[in-house]
């Protein structure tokens, strides 16, 4: 019995890590007496997989996870009981039993973000629109990636152009997330690759944009919210719960 | 409340911001405006360490049960957070209401280890509260302290307004209730101190005067006001089945040091190891009944969702019905996948049998504490463990499939010779031989032996409170002796920094004259001294030099039995005569039996009722 869950991670709880979030759900499920299935073996773990780890400090209106239950329970009862045990800033919005047994993380393709920031070298929204348009015409956008293997630090240059989908600079009055915005900030939406077939962290995207467009971003003001995650199933891009 | 915009900004700049956000399951946020008394509970270390401390959870919930009193938590911010707070002008604040600590009526520190003292000073400073007690006014909170370290409170005598000696569950509420009356009375700070000094277990250092002999030892310590008692008797809880224990525990978002349910099964210890302070100050032994423990466990599992229950005490295998308790807990929680763990193991097959049951198939490492390498020295410290116990236990463990063994020792114990030191190595090699003497087909796993040595620190209220510590050079010589002699890739040797143990010894047995040294060390930047990456020994040495305090006087000097010790005015319930008798028996290598087998006359049953002694 696989249950797909859509949930939020907002406000201060954006500061807990992926592992913290897994632990939080495990404990909430136990408090709520959810008959979750456990793995076999010496160290049984609840069967739970979160779609795509969210970097520390990024909020989200739509995270997903699949869990496996020992017995079927009604979606409403499940949601009410678990929500009762969750903190205000993490709440389940939707649940649905799914047939597909493919692992959720392997289906994830794109993340859609809303990013708010201030930059010293930027006065007009129109100006940024032009800059981004030209920037995305390039075939190659290089980013330095530092990897650690044991004691070795390996630095690699990565072309991230293909990991960037659409980027839209928002006009002041249309904003998607329900999180309050500073009026002096610039807000943009961007679609970035997510999942195990290519993944771009929105913070890395911002660092690249800052470097390429010479914006001089004030990092204290950067605020990132994930608005949506998309999966690919039967060759089609869809929402994980549709 | 602090400036939230600034707070939000600095969270983005620091490592592990979740240390500072609060909002955990079962944390309690009251409206501070409606409260008669506001209590800030301070742990002078980072969140992950402080949240692992059971006493915090007990007192936090106990105080918050009172309708008109709020208890909120505050921890030492890590250095990155401290830097940002100073830069943005954010004072130290509590996690629940994000309220500046300065606006509370009480700031209560728990002192678990001496090397957190500079953090106490630092936290006062970050709160904007004057460091010296005499410089604080009624505008500032009363700064109080409890915990094991306050059995010698003297190094902090100038800083803390009053100390709570012993178990805090009852006396804390007595203090807070008196404060309610005091608040209405319009009297001054000193009046309140006088009032609380009448309570058993409360020590107000400013009401006492200490004078010294020419050789630097204490001449006398006298109360300078009528109300202050000559000796301060520790507080204990008579019946642990009736004492408050929370049914809920705050469940942290981030991983803390002990991330599980701590189920306290008893207090005290009957073993009588002569180096152990906890074994004396937590007397008498008081057990909780199985029924009570099962009831507590049920509530805690239900309210926290934790995946582990740890059976805590000073020596959990001594619980009189351990086997029954463990099997009952396993029966109840196996299906829910809640595990049981036993943190302190003794070297006997009984312990291992229980461990086998708990761990079922999973085999993690096993840790034993023979404490000393030779039988002679184990007799000196009354560790009541023989080499045969160790070989039996280890053979059994290997047979059952464990292959990762850790052994804890101390070096620098009284009367120690090089032969005793090398005994540590010999034990390690013996354990190795036991493993390889098994027929090849029966050996399970990959053998790993860790020998870990800490440097002995003599503590107040132990039979070794009079002895001189080994010098740093002597410690290093002994460490090198072991390092040079342990040459086996199956055996790893770890040791503690002797310089830290030296400072710990000074603070553990220090007097009030150390207050200025502590402040000087802090002024030079010392904090988080227990964290090796921040520990700066040279600054401490400068601080001693500049305040004209001789560290060796406190750490290395052997005391005369007649000498007045800085903590003599505290009554732990165990008589000084008993400690002297034990000290003499130690030198004669004579054992004292476990007092469950018959009273050994420590005196605790004369001064206190309650526990197994009566």
UniProtKB/TrEMBL annotation, chain A:
InterPro entries the record matches: DUF2344
Pfam family, one: DUF2344
Domain DUF2344: 3-202
Database matches in NCBIfam families: sam_1_link_chp
Protein name, per record: Radical SAM-linked protein
Organism: Keratinibaculum paraultunense
From TrEMBL, chain B:
Domain of life: Bacteria
Taxonomic lineage from the root: Bacteria, Bacillati, Bacillota, Tissierellia, Tissierellales
InterPro entries the record matches: CHP03960_rSAM (IPR023862), Elp3/MiaA/NifB-like_rSAM (IPR006638), Radical_SAM_N2 (IPR045784), rSAM (IPR007197), rSAM_horseshoe (IPR023404), rSAM_sf (IPR058240)
UniProt-recorded Gene Ontology molecular function terms: catalytic activity; iron-sulfur cluster binding
Name of the protein this chain belongs to: Radical SAM family uncharacterized protein
Positions of the Radical SAM core domain: 255-499
């Amino acid at each position: 019995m696989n249950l797909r869950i859509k949930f939020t991670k907002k406000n201060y709880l954006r500061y807990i890590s992926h592992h913290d979030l897994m632990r939080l759900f495990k404990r909430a499920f136990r408090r709520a007496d959810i008959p979750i299935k456990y793995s076999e073996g010496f160290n049984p773990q609840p069967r739970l997989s979160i779609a795509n780890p969210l970097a520390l400090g990024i909020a989200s209106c739509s995270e997903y996870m699949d869990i496996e239950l020992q017995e079927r329970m009604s979606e409403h009862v499940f949601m009410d009981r678990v929500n009762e045990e969750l903190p205000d800033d993490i709440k389940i919005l939707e649940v649905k039993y799914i047939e597909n047994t493919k692992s959720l993380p392997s289906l994830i393709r794109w993340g859609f973000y809303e990013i708010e920031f201030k930059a010293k070298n930027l006065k007009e929204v129109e100006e940024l629109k032009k800059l981004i348009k030209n920037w995305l015409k390039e075939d190659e956008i290089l980013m330095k990636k530092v990897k650690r293997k044991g004691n070795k630090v390996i630095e690699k240059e990565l072309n991230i152009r293909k990991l960037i989908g659409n980027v839209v600079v928002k006009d002041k009055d249309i904003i998607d997330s329900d999180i309050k915005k500073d009026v002096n900030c610039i807000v943009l939406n961007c679609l970035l690759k997510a999942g195990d077939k290519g993944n771009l962290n929105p913070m890395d995207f911002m660092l690249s944009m800052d470097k390429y467009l010479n914006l001089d971003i004030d990092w204290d003001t950067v605020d990132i919210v994930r608005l949506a995650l998309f999966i690919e199933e039967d060759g089609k891009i869809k929402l994980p719960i549709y | 409340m602090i400036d939230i915009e600034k707070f939000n900004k600095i969270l983005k700049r620091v490592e592990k911001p979740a240390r500072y956000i609060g909002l955990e399951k079962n944390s309690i946020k009251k409206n501070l405006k409606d409260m008669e008394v506001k209590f800030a509970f301070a742990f002078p270390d980072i969140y992950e360490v402080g949240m692992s401390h059971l006493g915090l959870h007990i007192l936090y919930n106990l105080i918050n049960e009172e309708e008109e009193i709020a208890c909120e938590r505050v921890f030492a911010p890590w250095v990155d957070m401290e830097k940002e707070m100073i830069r943005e002008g954010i004072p130290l604040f509590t996690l629940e209401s994000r309220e500046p600590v300065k606006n509370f009526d009480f700031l209560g520190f728990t002192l678990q280890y001496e090397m957190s003292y500079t953090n106490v000073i630092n936290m006062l400073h970050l709160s904007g509260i004057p460091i010296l007690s005499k410089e604080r006014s009624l505008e500032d909170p009363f700064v109080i302290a409890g915990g094991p370290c306050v059995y010698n409170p003297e190094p902090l005598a100038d800083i803390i307004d009053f100390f709570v000696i012993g178990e805090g569950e009852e006396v804390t509420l007595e203090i807070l209730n008196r404060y309610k009356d005091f608040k209405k009375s319009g009297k001054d700070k000193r009046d309140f101190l006088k009032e609380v000094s009448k309570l058993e277990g409360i020590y107000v250092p400013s009401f006492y005067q200490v004078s010294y002999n020419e050789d630097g030892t204490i001449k006398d310590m006298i109360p300078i006001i009528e109300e202050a008692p000559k000796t301060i008797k520790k507080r204990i809880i008579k019946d642990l089945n009736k004492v408050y224990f929370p049914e809920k525990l705050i469940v942290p978002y981030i991983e803390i040091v002990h991330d599980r349910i701590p189920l306290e099964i008893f207090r005290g210890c009957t073993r009588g190891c002569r180096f152990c302070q906890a074994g004396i100050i937590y007397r008498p032994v008081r057990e909780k009944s199985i029924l009570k423990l099962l009831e507590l466990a049920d509530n805690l599992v239900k309210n926290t969702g934790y995946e582990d229950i740890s059976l805590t005490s000073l020596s959990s295998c001594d619980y009189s019905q351990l086997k029954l308790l463990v099997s009952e807990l396993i029966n109840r929680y196996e299906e829910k996948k809640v595990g049981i763990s036993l943190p302190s193991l003794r070297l006997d097959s009984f312990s291992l049998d229980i461990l086998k049951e708990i761990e079922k198939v999973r085999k993690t490492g096993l840790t034993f504490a023979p404490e000393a390498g030779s039988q002679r020295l184990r007799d000196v410290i009354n560790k009541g463990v023989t080499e045969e116990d160790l070989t039996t236990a280890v053979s059994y463990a290997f047979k059952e499939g464990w292959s990762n063994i850790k052994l804890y020792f101390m070096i620098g114990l009284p009367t120690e010779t090089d032969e005793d030191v090398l005994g540590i190595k010999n034990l390690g090699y013996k354990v190795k031989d036991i493993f390889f003497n098994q027929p090849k087909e029966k050996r399970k796993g990959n053998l790993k032996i860790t020998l870990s040595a800490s440097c002995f620190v003599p503590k107040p209220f132990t039979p070794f409170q009079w002895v001189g510590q080994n010098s740093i050079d002597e410690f290093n010589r002994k460490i090198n002796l072991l390092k040079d002699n342990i040459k086996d890739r199956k055996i790893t040797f770890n040791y503690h920094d002797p310089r830290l143990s030296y400072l710990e010894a000074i603070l553990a047995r220090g007097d009030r004259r150390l207050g200025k040294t502590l402040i000087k060390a802090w002024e030079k930047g010392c904090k988080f001294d227990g964290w090796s990456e921040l520990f700066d020994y040279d600054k401490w040495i400068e601080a001693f030099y500049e305040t004209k305090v001789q560290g060796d006087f406190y750490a290395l000097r052997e005391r005369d039995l007649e000498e007045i010790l800085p903590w003599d005015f505290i009554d732990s319930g165990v008589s000084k005569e008993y400690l002297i008798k034990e000290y003499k028996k130690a030198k004669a290598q004579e054992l004292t039996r476990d007092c469950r087998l018959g009273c050994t006359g420590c005196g605790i049953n004369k001064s206190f009722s309650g526990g197994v002694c009566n």
